[in-house]
């Protein structure tokens, strides 16, 4: 397993969840 790729996937999921929460807080939907 490529740890860099796995880390990138986890980081991407984390960013998506983070931005979704932030967007909800500001009432924005993309």
Describe this structure in words.
This protein has 30 residues and is mostly helical. It has one domain. 80% of the residues lie in helices and 0% in strands. The longest helix has 24 residues. It is rod-shaped, with a radius of gyration of 12 Å. The chain starts with a helix and ends with a helix. The model has no long low-confidence stretch (mean pLDDT 78).
Class by SSE composition: mainly alpha
Contiguous low-pLDDT stretches (5 residues minimum) are none
Helical residues, percent: over 70%
User: Total domains, how many?
Assistant: 1
Gyration radius, rounded? 12 Å
- Fraction of residues in β-strands: under 5%
Largest β sheet strand count, sense and barrel closure? none
Gap between N and C termini, in Å?
33 Å
SSE string, helix = H, strand = E?
A: H
**Mean of residue pLDDT values:** 78
Number of helical segments with 4 or more residues? 1
Total beta strands: 0
């Amino acid at each position: 397993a490529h740890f860099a790729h796995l880390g990138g996937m986890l980081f991407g999921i984390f960013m998506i969840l983070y931005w979704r929460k932030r967007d909800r807080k500001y009432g924005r939907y993309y």
